[in-house]
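note to self: dont lose this again. the chain is below, predicted strucutre after it. 178 aa total, dont forget to put it in the shared folder this time
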Amino acid sequence: MALSPHDMNAAIERNLLSRTGKDLAAWVALARTRAGDDRRALIAWLKASHGLGHVTAQLVATRALVGSAPTARALLHQRFDERARALLEVVEPVVLGVSPDVERVVCKTYVGYRRKKQFAAIRPHRDGLEVAVALRGASFGLSPTRFKGGGGLTHGLVVDRVTPALLRAVKAAAGGAE
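---
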């Protein structure tokens, strides 16, 4: 049986000292000496310079960068202006309301929504909000999207309010993300 991500990280942390001669705190302290590196660059450095495996390097980089990453609220305020945030407050309950297991993930340039897989993403647009969805089969009259925010997003629309087209698309996409 495969380990959960939490159990996998605990196992890596438990075995780190015996495998590398350093515990997690020492690796995190070392990683923090690379001030200015983003997560991707830090992972690459840990792998290339210290021979860590990818998952171990991810764990160290994530722990090293805790507290340096902007909060979800800060990201929303950076990316979404006041008008877009107000519109998001109207549109987001529709997306979150399609199923009790929908999770919101705030990223640098968009807000993603997932169940087991991401099924929708929202980002600011000059005319409101761009909503991209992952549709399998029917397109509900939506245009193909060029949204690069998440895997599998196929169609999109720009909205300035909750519309029937938005409701249909989000419900269909959420149903395919089970």
